[in-house]
């Protein structure tokens, strides 16, 4: 109610502002022109970005294709070759001291890619989710088309519990002892002379051996290894 009277009062006061409309008529033309050129600029920018992106994707694709064609990368394979028990001592308190010598065969089938195995590795022998013993593989470089036997000595004392001890005794009697050998190792991929970034490789081998008799090489009944790479 009150705002209406002020509006009528305002008009005479704004007489000066009535003039601008003619100017404004002109101004929009310039503005619309400048808007148009601004839009063109934006469009050009987006176009450029698109062209650049397409080019980049094309280049990366070509590079990847070239890399695969020239280097033909292949995943190395692993296998437990030998499993020998040095100690297998069940203690009356249900703890178990074990010492195994495990030989893992690492096969690098690549003819242009090498691998460097780092220091901070770990190897574990696991029986029914309990770690029996552990060790480390030595750091080494594996060249092209190379097969290396990695010998690892694993030692450890585990608190075993009577249940597991019984299960293991049963397995030993039946001559089928399921074990897991877990290897975790940092691996650098080396192309030519250039080491690329390091990956954490985890190899899990499901193993069934026929005996755990000290100082006797175990027969390996089943042996499947699954490599997994953590990026
Ligand atoms: C494979 O690499 C290992 C470790 O570098 C080396 O000791 C061995 O001689 C190589 N084997 C062959 C067949 O080149």
From TrEMBL:
Limits of the Late embryogenesis abundant protein LEA-2 subgroup domain: 103-205
Organism of derivation: Punica granatum (Pomegranate)
Pfam families listed in its UniProt record: LEA_2
Top-rank lineage group of the source organism: Eukaryota
Principal localisation: membrane
The protein's name: Late embryogenesis abundant protein LEA-2 subgroup domain-containing protein
A GO CC term attached to the entry: plasma membrane
InterPro entries noted in UniProt: LEA_2 (IPR004864), NDR1-like (IPR044839)
High-level lineage: Eukaryota, Viridiplantae, Streptophyta, Embryophyta, Tracheophyta
One GO process term, biological-process aspect: defense response to other organism
Transmembrane segments annotated in the record for this chain: 41-69
Keywords, ordered alphabetically: Membrane, Transmembrane, Transmembrane helix
Membrane topology: Single-pass membrane protein
KW Thylakoid (keyword) present: no
Cellular location(s): Membrane
């Amino acid at each position: 109610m009150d705002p209406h009277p002020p509006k009528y009062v305002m008009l005479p006061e704004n007489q000066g502002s009535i003039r601008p409309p003619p100017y404004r008529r002109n101004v929009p033309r310039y503005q619309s022109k400048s808007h148009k050129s601004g839009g063109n600029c934006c469009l050009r920018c987006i176009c450029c970005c698109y062209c650049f992106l397409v080019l980049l994707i094309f280049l990366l694709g070509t590079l990847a294709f070239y890399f695969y064609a020239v280097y033909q990368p292949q995943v190395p394979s692993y296998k437990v070759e030998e499993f020998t028990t040095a100690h297998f001592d069940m203690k009356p308190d249900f703890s178990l001291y074990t010492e195994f010598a495990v030989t893992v065969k690492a096969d690098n089938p690549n003819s242009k890619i090498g691998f460097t195995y780092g220091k901070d590795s770990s190897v574990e022998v696991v029986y029914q989710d309990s770690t029996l013993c552990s060790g480390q593989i030595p750091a080494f470089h594996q060249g092209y088309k190379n097969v290396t036997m990695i010998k690892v000595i694993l030692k450890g004392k585990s608190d075993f519990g009577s249940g597991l001890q019984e299960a293991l005794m049963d397995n030993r009697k039946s001559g089928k002892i399921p074990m897991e050998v877990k290897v975790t190792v940092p691996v650098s991929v080396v192309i030519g002379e250039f080491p690329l970034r390091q990956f954490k490789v985890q190899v899990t081998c499901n193993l069934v051996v026929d005996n755990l008799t000290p100082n006797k090489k175990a027969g390996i009944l089943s042996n499947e290894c699954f490599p997994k790479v953590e990026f």
